[in-house]
Amino acid sequence: MYAIKPGPKPKTDEGKDDKRRRVNPPNKDKHPDLKPHKHKPKD
What we know:
Elements: no helix or strand
């Protein structure tokens, strides 16, 4: 079994770590919600 090696972290133009991973409230309109999925029987 091998360990998962994380890749290099993204950097901003200023050289700091880029921590954008979530949708901010001002940009929420650009990201539609996920469609509801249907479960099959016995799933």
